[in-house]
Amino acid sequence: MSERLRRGLYRFRRSWVSVLGLGIVCLLLLIAILGPAIVPHPEHVAGLVQTGTRFQPPSAAWWFGTNEVGQDVFSLTLAGTRVSLLAGMAVVIVGAVIGVFVGAIAGFFGGWLDEGLMRLSDLMLTVPSLILAMAVAAALGPGTGNMIFAIALSWWPGYARLVRGEVMAKKEEQFVTAARAMGAGSGRLLRRHVLPNIVSPVIVKMSLDMGFAILTVASLGFVGIGVKPPTPEWGSLLSVARANMPDYWWTAIFPGLAIFLAVFGFNLLGDGLRDLLDPKARR
Amino acid sequence: MLEVEGVSKIYGGERRGFFGRAPQVHALSDVSLSVRRGESFGLVGESGSGKTTLTRCLLRLEEVSAGTIRFDGDDIGRLSAAGLRALRARVGIVFQDPYASLNPRMSIADIVCEPMEIHRARLGLDGRGRRDRAAELLERVGLGPQHLGRFPHEFSGGQRQRIGIARALATGPDFLILDEPTSALDVSVQAQVLNLLHDLQAQLGLTYFFISHDLGVIRYVCDRVALIYRGRLVEVGATEAVFQNPASDYARSLIAAMPDPDPDRSPFGPRFPG
Ligand SMILES: Nc1ncnc2c1ncn2[C@@H]1O[C@H](COP(=O)(O)OP(=O)(O)OP(=O)(O)O)[C@@H](O)[C@H]1O
Ligand SMILES: [Mg+2]
């Protein structure tokens, strides 16, 4: 392992795009953690309206300009990082947990359980996440928690398929047969032998999915059923800024760039991680 | 100790889609043999002849299609859950491929301790006791306690096979299934592992069910031998008798194809020196 890991790390460092991805992700995480503490105008983030300085273009004083109520777009975008990243992460984690659970059971036990669970996940896959999220919002009311739940609901089938395939392959391995021959029960076989050997592809998928999850969260914010203002979130910032286009383009372009940067960074990192952890799956 | 009576195993035949059925494979047809306590019983056959299938049936990893298997008089097809657990503690197995049979994510300590954990009610060992026993087992197979924290990839094929043997011995079994334990190893390492197995048998009073496609190894290790061809036993008897007077054409052709049937000149040296 250490030898393989070292070689993987070497490959990772050699590919500058992976390092760039890691850099972007680290930067975003740092901003998310420090959040409101480092923004130049925390009072704007808290909702202060300052109509005297509305629609200032980007300048040395207002790096990203100001919006229709005079708030600093730079501060809002920076503060939005935390919400967007957290929501994206929550979606991916909830989706992965459900998916790993379902996929592991389907792949390990097979038979009608497998049939049933996979039909269910196919069904979920056919419903676009946006529509599902709207339905959930309509049923349970809008809000961040419901939105995460709704997206995760359409997110887990991807993990279930991945994990099912991996589990089906791994459970035929000889060390699993060996454990079975020693009298290990299904729970132990799954927990100790099968699942630990399929972590890598799941981690890779989670990292590749992060960008897209952030994008989905943003699009729900954009259509107005996700995070509610005044909590700053990239999608809802964009949504409000829609009305200011094209004259006051800076109110839209910077939250949009932030989304792009996050998607880009997590995808590069995911590709790099795949090379590192799961070299077989390389395209 | 072990009696196999008229065992058949047919794979496949389950429905596939709306019309088709999976093709049937007769992996074992009407196999009968018995293994006596304390002996080494050899099973020889070419690849695909059903040797592994028989071991899977012995451990009830697979249900037989017909026939019965008795271990110490108990029909293993009718064992309760507790009975099955006891069977799996009393029967150890060493696999052919030392690279695939150890979980790459587990340390040697975890690998050797796992059977003791599964059967802790039977063995009555706490965590400390299990680790001590693991160290002891490693020493017995020619490794040492310094290897406990290592991972399988840090070992050679022969060392891994020793770890596999230590794991198979962990629950204190009296019956060991050895499914081609040396066929993946270099000849020099093969001899070491075979000698280890021989010593262990003498020390622990084990009964061996030894599978191989290498007649030289079988002749070196086994008291009695059965030849299997396409799922059917074609010959059973004392090893020397089978080698001197093969009754079936298949046995004759196998022995004729052996590179050097003289045991004194086999790569493993004289039979059981000392
Ligand atoms: N799960 C299964 N489903 C269908 N057929 C199987 C299955 N397992 C084994 N077989 C078939 O049963 C036959 C016997 O296989 P088995 O693995 O017992 O052979 P073997 O004697 O152990 O061979 P080798 O020396 O290569 O290990 C083969 O034809 C094999 O294809
Ligand atoms: Mg085999």
UniProtKB/TrEMBL annotation, chain A:
Localization in the cell: Cell membrane
Signal sequence coordinates: none
Topology with respect to the bilayer: Multi-pass membrane protein
GO biological process, one term: transmembrane transport
Pfam family, one: OppC_N
Chief location of this protein within or outside the cell: membrane
GO cellular component, one term: plasma membrane
Keyword Transport: yes
ABC transmembrane type-1 domain mapped to chain residues: 81-270
Residue spans crossing the bilayer: 16-39, 85-111, 123-141, 210-228, 248-270
InterPro entries: BP-dependent_transpt_permease (IPR050366), MetI-like (IPR000515), MetI-like_sf (IPR035906), OppC_N (IPR025966)
CDD domains cross-referenced by the UniProt entry: TM_PBP2
Family label: Belongs to the binding-protein-dependent transport system permease family.
PANTHER family cross-referenced by the UniProt entry: D,D-DIPEPTIDE TRANSPORT SYSTEM PERMEASE PROTEIN DDPC-RELATED (PTHR43386:SF1), OLIGOPEPTIDE TRANSPORT SYSTEM PERMEASE PROTEIN APPC (PTHR43386)
Full protein name: D-ala-D-ala transporter subunit
UniProtKB/TrEMBL annotation, chain B:
Record keywords: ATP-binding, Nucleotide-binding, Transport
Superkingdom as given in the UniProt entry: Bacteria
Residue stretches making up the ABC transporter domain: 2-255
SUPFAM superfamilies recorded: P-loop containing nucleoside triphosphate hydrolases
Gene Ontology terms: biological process: transmembrane transport
PROSITE patterns in the cross-refs: ABC_TRANSPORTER_1, ABC_TRANSPORTER_2
Protein name: ABC transporter domain-containing protein
